[in-house]
Structure formats: C-alpha cells, structure tokens
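Re: the request from the purification team.
They wanted to know what the chain is likely to look like in 3D before they choose a buffer screen. I agreed to run a prediction and write the result into the notebook, where they can find it.
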Amino acid sequence: VVITATQMMESMINSTLPTRAEVFDVANAVLDGTDAVMLSAETAVGQYPVHVVKAMADAAQGAEAQPVARTSRYRLNTEFTSAQETIAMSAIYAANHYAKVRGIACLTESGRTPLMMSRLSSGLPIFALSRLGETLQKLCLCRGVVPLYFDAAAFDADDVEARAIEFLLDGGYLGKDDSILLTKGAIMGTAGSTNIMKILPVT
C-alpha cells in the first residue's frame, strides 16, 4: 500500500480553496498509482477541515475518472503464477475495455483478488464483497477498492450472483441497465479459489 502524505493541501489551513498546484499534486499522485492520500495539519489545526477533505476527494476522484487512469502496463510481459492472478488481471483488462461495465464485484475470503486488481490502473470501483471483517479492514486503503460486508454463504450457490447484484443495486452502487464484472471461486468460502469471471447485466 502506497500512501502519499506531504501536506498536499497546506494552503487550505487558512483558506477554503486549494491552489492550482495543490490540486495537480493530488491528481498526479493518483495518476502515479498511490493507494491513498493523507492530510495532516490541514485537518488537525486548519480552519476549514471539511473543505479540505472535500477538495482532496474531488481532485482524487476527478483524476480517477480520466481515461489515462484506465491504462496500465503492470505485469504485461510476465507470466501469471495462479488462476487467481490470471482472473484478477483479466477482469481489470476486460472492465477497462468494455464500456458497459460500471464496476467489478469480487466475492472474496482473503481479499487477495481485489488487492491484485488494485495494482492495475482503473477508473472503475472494485467492490470487495466479503463476510470477514478482517478482510474488509485490510482492503480499506487499497486503490479503487470499496470493501462491503456481504455474506455469500447465506445464499444458495446458484443464487449468489443475483443476490450480489441486488445488494449493489440497492446500495446505489449500480444503476439499471449497467453491467457488472463479477469474480468468484468455484468453491465458495475457500480462500485462493477465485477462478470464475463473468460479465452480468444489472436488471
């Protein structure tokens, strides 16, 4: 996990607006692949902590939405070492090149698949769906990952995909007529078993 924390919005200690240079610093950190940006004095002793957080979030999200953020050469010329890694890399590539996909849903036990996905640049959210608090907690700082509590074991294996889509739709993460790329393991509840990737319509 890479965290950039160097008083990136220092002028906002006493101002409600950042400088152009500060906005570019945050955006460039995101485009360079940082997982998280952090504030210090701006919120600890600054006069406008809420304004600072909003300005930083706007700059980061704006950078993530740019097409350049959806290209990556990470591990492009190397062999993958497992089916799990192959699915993770393939999912990001497919999602980045198929415009109807609005996000990636990972049914995960260990969190390894969404962690691997976060190494590649993508402007799409990676929804890490897990029943394990420890897994969700460790994914909080991974770039582009949205950890969400979802107990796949509570559903029949044939129904879990539809329930996951329904969960994301009800939460406002997806809209009608979107598509979602979903990854999971053939053996549900077993860490490291991710070997399935599907593109599913949201209905």
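For the purification team: The radius of gyration is 18 Å.
Please add any questions underneath this entry.
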